[in-house]
Every structure is written in structure tokens, then in C-alpha cells.
Amino acid sequence: MRASPEGRFIAFAGTNASGDSIGIGVLSLADGRFTQLWTTFAEYADLFWLQDASLLIRIFDTMETSTFYRTRIGGRVQRIGSPARPVATFLVSEDMNRVLVVTSDYRGDAWIGNVAR
Length: 117
Description:
There is one protein chain. This protein is an all-beta fold. It has one domain. The protein has no helices and 10 strands. It has a 4-stranded antiparallel β-sheet, with no helix packed on it. Strands 5-6-7-8 form a 4-stranded antiparallel β-sheet, with no helix packed on it. The termini are far apart.
């Protein structure tokens, strides 16, 4: 759940009753009106308001892969892209021209051990 920068809306994501899809919606704080923006299959979703009042949506297609989308209230959802590696975190510049993406490369098969007699 995220409040918009000007404080007029709250964006949120949640699963449906069967748990097989994610719904993205906004609530107007001025009149209490709910607007459903999008429903899609996903494991999880993160929402981020951008400075131009658009909403950046990170959909976790699986627990290790994600796809980024952008929309405006009442607008069309536009696919931005899917990073080739798992994303640990990211930041978007205020002018929305640059994105810093930190990826992770988990190697669960690498380990070190000491053997003592």
C-alpha cells in the first residue's frame, strides 16, 4: 500500500479469494471512491508512485523473476520490461529517465567447510 506524492490517493495490491491473481487498485481519499486498475496472474506485487503521478508496478511473475509496468489512474497498463536476472532492489530518478537496478546472483551450491579430527 502506497500513498501518492500529493496525498490524494492510496494504491494497493492484493490477491483474489482463490489466490491465483493480483488486483491493483487505488482509493481516492477525497471521496472514498475505489478504482480497479488491473488484474493479472502474479505471485506478488510492489507499487511505487512516480513524480508525474503515474504508478510503477513491479509484478513478481515467480518468486525470482519480475516484470515492470507503468500506468495512470484510468489509463492503460504499459509493460516496461523484465530484467534478465533477479532484482534485489531498484531506484527511479525523479525525472524518470534513469533506473538503478541491483541484481542478485544467489549460489546455493557454493560453500566452505572445515574438517577437524
